[in-house]
Amino acid sequence: MKTRATRRQRRSAAIIKAVRPWQENPLVHSLTCGNDSQHAPLEAVEENGRVELHCRDCGYRQADIPEIVIKGKPSRALAKRVAAVLAAKPIQFR
Ligand SMILES: [Zn+2]
Which residues contact 19 (CB under 8 A, 6 or more apart)? Predict the structure, then answer.
């Protein structure tokens, strides 16, 4: 039983660790509140061994965290490269 709890804790920690960079990445759509998308980006919070997304503005809760957020891990390096390309080639307006 001890091993199982530890594994779950590790998974929870990994999910929380994955959600934060996703929420801070300007290249992806952040996970937003189901009541009002203008609220602060949702935060991953562990409760009773499960990770949920919470809105700190209104208390909205979302149990479902998209798999791509957990596995996708958008990298800062890629974000920097894309930003550099966009800076080097400004969009031309006619
Ligand atoms: Zn909210």
Answer: 31, 42, 43, 44, 51, 53, 65, 69, 70
Between the CA of 82 and the centroid of ligand 1 the distance, in Å, is 30
CA of 68 to the centre of ligand 1 (A): 22
Q: What is the pLDDT of residues 26-43, one digit of tens each?
A: 888 899 999 999 999 999
Q: Is this structure's pTM higher than 0.85?
A: no
Give the residue from 8, 18, 7, 3 showing the smallest Cα distance to 65: 18
Q: Which residues contact 9 (CB under 8 A, 6 or more apart)?
A: 49
